[in-house]
Amino acid sequence: MDSYSTAPPCAESPPHAEIRPGDCPISPDDDPFYRAPKGYEHAEPGTVLRSRDVEIGFLGLISQRVHATQLLYRTTNLHEEPEVAVTTVLVPSQRESNVAGPVLSYQCAIDAVASRCFPSFAMRRGARPIGGFVQAEYLLVTAALAEGWAVCVPDHEGCHGMWGAPVEPGYRILDGLRAAMRCERVNLSPSAPVGLWGYSGGGLASAWAAELCERYAPELNVVGAVLGSPVGDPGSVARRLNGSFFAGLAALMISALTQVFPGARNVVNEHATDQGKALLDELQTMTTAQAVWKFRNVDIGSYVDMTADELWDLPEVRHIFDETKLGKSRPKPPVLVIQAVHDEIISVDDVDALVAEYERLGAAVTYHRDRFCGHLLLHPLSAPMTLRWLRDRFTNRPVNEHRTRTVWPTMFNPSTYLGMVKLGVITAKVVLGLPIERQPLSTTDAR
């Protein structure tokens, strides 16, 4: 059925959109499941428009013994216009009888425009998203399932891959949670405590949700948000990465923002070379790794009729980066910010500034400022600490507010390695396609 007005609380997909186990999934660009049904714009944000069960496959190959349901739901974009998005809801095989158990929204670092990098596609058996990072992050999703929590993994960039767009990732995350809690098919409680977790681009998306939840979705019981290396100042990141090995990350964001802001498109039309315009179109189809490799050490200024510094200083560009900067409002839930001092992608100075702004606004902030790890290593090594912090929020333990510190490195914490052993066991089960039993990493981190 294609009309929201006649759909039950968690409508089944139309028969032509159902995927049988073992089938290769259809790209979101061609899959009718992702198409907005007629009249959807009249539904309330968070309304489930369509649903289906899907098979999860690690690396697209190894079938996972986890119940996964995908929801198409009504949400809102940056311009307050209706749109649709998809979230994948994973439920642990051994659920506690209490249906009000915790729900975690995990935001992957999609960091691409191409739809094959979306979690709803990349996590499925048969998908081959070579060059996307979602498959690696699935191991952390599994660690959350091992805690006994239900996990929502939203396509927080929407159906068009708007990487770096401000505000709207928060709408999609919160509406995805609304949809999951309204869906009888997954049997979650509307009163369940909710946590947010993401790293890098996922940390950016999680921060928008934390900033927006009090105003946009006050009925959700959001009790904590973990912001791992959040991209607090995208303009600063673009300047920092230009000419570096990771220049492709900035190029991907610019490609997406030209679809979000008319001013960005005007800058491209007026100042980009023909080669630059062609490359921006090509970026729309690249995975994250492909873009990073193709644009390694590239100066973005070589694709416009001015230097990169002059490009960043154009009034239209400054306006866009001001809009994409975090810190617009106080996060209602307590937040744990995790950042490496020697991060090669996200400057610690930018995250310091974001934390200072959150504290000025009166947010409850705990800041793990790691003095040893780099950007990529800190995410898995901080997982036991993150899960412990989230468990404390789910169980209403008091939080240490306004604690900003440069800490003893996670790598040198003995409890980190016990956590890594447990994560290794979980990884082995994922690789072997075995059921994930209750094996909390959160119990390995010292207070």
Give an overview of the whole structure.
The structure is a single chain. The protein has helices at residues 119-122, 134-146, 168-182, 201-216, 234-241, 247-260, 262-271, 274-283, 288-294, 308-312, 315-323, 348-360, 375-381, 383-394, 414-432, and strands at 48-54, 57-58, 62-63, 67-76, 82-91, 103-107, 150-154, 193-199, 221-228, 335-340, 365-370, 403-407. The protein has 447 residues and is of the alpha/beta class. The chain folds into two domains: 4-233 and 325-444, Rossmann fold; 234-323, 434 Repressor (Amino-terminal Domain), CATH 1.10.260.130. The strands form two sheets. A ten-stranded mixed beta sheet has the order 1-4-5-7-6-8-9-10-11-12, with helices on both faces. Strands 2-3 form a two-stranded antiparallel sheet. Strand 4 (67-76) and strand 5 (82-91) form a beta hairpin. The radius of gyration is 21 Å and the shape is globular.
List keywords for this structure.
globular; two-stranded antiparallel sheet; 2 domains; Rossmann fold; ten-stranded mixed sheet; single chain; 434 Repressor (Amino-terminal Domain); 447 residues; alpha/beta
